Amino acid sequence: MVDFKRLEDIDVAGKRVLVRVDFNVPCDDEGNVTDGTRLVAALPTINFLRKHKAKIILISHFGRPGGKRETRASMMKLIKPLTSLLGTDVAFAPDCIGKTADAAVAALRDGDVLLLENTRFHKGETHKADGTKGYDPKFAAALAAHGDIFVHDAFSVAHRAQGSTSGIAASLPAYAGLAMERELDHLTQALDIPRRPVMGLVGGAKVSSKIDLLKNLVSRLDRLAIGGGMANTFLAALGHSVGASLCEHDLTDTALEIMRNAERENCEILLPVDVVAAKEFKAGAKHRVCGLDAVADDEMILDAGPATVDKLADAIDASKTLIWNGPLGAFELTPFDTATVEAAKYAARRAQNNGLIAVAGGGDTVAALKHAGVADDFTFISTAGGAFLEWMEGKALPGVEILKK
Ligand code: AMP
Q1: Ligand 1 atom nearest residue 331's Cα
Q2: Cβ neighbours for 263, distance < 8 A, ≥ 6 positions apart
Q3: Among the CATH numbers 3.40.50.1260, 3.40.50.720, 3.90.79.10, 3.40.50.11290, which is that of 7-179?
Q4: Which residue in 76, 48, 356, 324 sits closest to 180, CA to CA?
Q5: How far apart are CA 61 and CA 405, in angstroms?
């Protein structure tokens, strides 16, 4: 288990605790929060700090205002939902640094909660003073001046070194918040010290976006199932016809190299053994199940077939840990969601009843598992997209490095 600094290890009473949350929540045109998952994810840390009488200062980015004030990117709209979730008043400062922020911080009593305005209203959050990418240490120092302690609770931004993350940690002691801790504990347990055999299931559109991830996984897992559009590149590399399917023909050598690496590392690769093919990329398109070499030139593989799902179920049964990223087909278009839904339900049942450790995350994965109705039945679902993928790629994440002992 990674040995990192945890919130529970310190005395926060009376201290000003600067908490980096990820409140970049989806909103409608009127500014109403349409999915409050990220607000809810921050509650354990905020409530812990309230219980232990800290002065709580929440900071986050929202959208991409690019260093300028933008009304629709204001955090102000989050005060109401946050107040109702916490059951207590939440103060607001219309800037994250400067006089208004300083005054709001100075007015905090023990147990109070303050939300500062969007960090990305300042260019220094994401750019150095010379305009290149990074962060401006002066901006970061102005943020850090609000706190005695820094708590990083936003794993979803852990792959970025920005002013409100690594920048603050440069001058304040940094600790993992409870949501961060949950992410790190589960992901470490799934990938670094897994109960074996450990299986990966990687789907999604393209190999090109997941080359590093596949390379890292074959060196760590006992078996790896590849699905979705990206499986087509592997099938093509093996000489199967993929018709008009989404396929990166220029990456067939990469696919072969990944398969060779897998063999060397004793990682079994599972590819589709049958597919669902259609001539149109739309919901309800006429389709048929066929074997690998029966895909016609004008057909597209849009999902894995039932024999493949059976094979995946057997592989899940033979595994103690499952790490899932990406759908097995074009799951937004019924009935091409079938393999994703069936396999997700199967994994969820095994997680609920047979002790399978099932961990998922990254991009469309959460949407796919929600669509299958099993998001609550997995052992853990990461709220992160890019950070989850970079973790799976085996990269050191700056936001995690600052928390290591
Ligand atoms: P990713 O963001 O790489 O995880 O890819 C997710 C996207 O891959 C989803 O929008 C799926 O519809 C798409 N996808 C999965 N399988 C296929 C396929 N066989 N053909 C086309 N798109 C696919």
Answers
A1: 12
A2: none
A3: 3.40.50.1260
A4: 48
A5: 26
Cα(303) to centroid(ligand 1), Å: 9
Q: How many residues does the chain have?
A: 405
**Block means of pLDDT (10 residues each) for the chain, length 405 residues?**
86 98 94 92 98 98 96 96 97 98 98 98 97 97 98 97 97 97 94 96 94 96 98 98 97 98 98 98 98 96 98 98 97 98 98 97 90 96 92 95 94
Indicate which residue's Cα is closest to atom 4 of ligand 1. Answer: 204
Choose the residue to mutate in 246, 248, 366 for probing ligand 1, maximizing ligand atoms within 8 Å of C-beta.
246
User: What's the confidence (pLDDT) of residue 114?
Assistant: 98
Q: Which residues line ligand 1 (CB under 6 A)?
A: 204-206, 209, 228-229, 246, 301-302, 326-327, 329-332, 363-364
Secondary structure (3-state) at 165 = helix
Atom of ligand 1 lying closest to residue 209 CA: 3
CB contact at 8 A, 217 and 326: no
The domain locations on the chain are 7-179, 194-392
Closest CA to 167 of 130, 119, 135: 135
Following DSSP, what letter does each residue of 108-154 receive, concatenated? PPTT-EEEE--GGGSGGGTB-TTSSBS--HHHHHHHHTT-SEEEE--
Q: Do domains 7-179 and 194-392 have the same CATH topology?
A: yes
Q: 229: CA distance to ligand 1 center in Å?
A: 6
Residue 97 CA to its chain's centroid (Å): 29
Give me the active site residues, please: 38, 206, 363, 386
Give the separation between CA 252 and CA 233, rounded to whole angstroms: 6
Distances in Å between the Cα of 107 and the Cα atoms of 24, 142, 146, 184 are: 26, 17, 12, 34
The CATH number corresponding to 194-392 among 2.60.40.10, 3.30.420.10, 3.40.50.1260, 3.65.10.10 equals: 3.40.50.1260
